Amino acid sequence: MNNEFKFTINSIAFDENYQPSDSTRITTNFANLARGESRQENLRNALTMIDNQFNSLANWDNPKADRYSVELEIISVDMDIDHEGNGKSFPTIEILKTNIVDHKTKKRIEGIVGNNFSSYVRDYDFSVLLLEHNKDKPGFSIPENFGDLHGKLFKCFVNSDAYKQNFTKLPVICLSVSDNKTYHQTENHHPILGIEYLPNESSLTEQYFKKMGLKVRYFMPPNSVAPLAFYFFGDLLNDYSNLELISTISTMETFQKIYRPEIYNANAAAGKCYKPDLKNRDHSLTQIVYDREERSQLAIKQGKLAEENFIKPYQSILEQWSANYAL
């Protein structure tokens, strides 16, 4: 059996004219911003926040704080399921790509791919499989081989010809910190990423992303109020330029301010010992309307869609491929 699935990559601009597509997984994160009476204003405000944060961090040779702007692409990854090339594909992964426009030099600089990370299979694992496994059971446990298939699919994609033809560097995914962990400040300080934090214990998300081949480090960038989780291959601090790192920080911190204002738009910055609190009332709201409850409901809905259209009908193919897959 062929050990490689074929991937097709499509992209759409995430700008003030962005219209959510039914076939795009990542729109569940962004669709709230892109519909209703305030859709264009929401998008414009979010993009302005990203640009302002970028210029705040890239402050050298930038006296008016207006030298740069960030352009975003939603990258959709479809996988040919049965190797026959008969059009049967499934939307496996969606990520964001940043591009940087330098208005001084009139150059467009490639940013980082990854950033936000969405996956139907991850929705299935966390919102269907994990919930079913723990239903009516005392305590909490993780199903056997939890995340194995998803991890192998992700590694297969990153090592695919499609990925290498479209992107020059490996992905960096930037997520929120966990609200049930405690983070301790270290002495390590990076000029762009900021102050490094260490968690008191490993989280389920860390373990899940480790199966995808990703390591994690936690940094609180300058002028930020909480650390971000950076998942990466290789060497985060040396494999990427300052502008590349800033493009990820400015983009993902903006979305976290919208999604989780209690943590990332708090009025007090994280101290040396920090425990994120989603019930923190001392925070400010952005002027962007976002329905967090709907996002949680959609994760369950899409997890079930993955189960019905991918996991169950192609179970034997996926199990055989997973058993034989090795880098």
Automatic annotation (TrEMBL):
Pfam families: MesX. It comes from the Bacteria. InterPro entries: MesX (IPR015004). This is DUF1852 domain-containing protein.
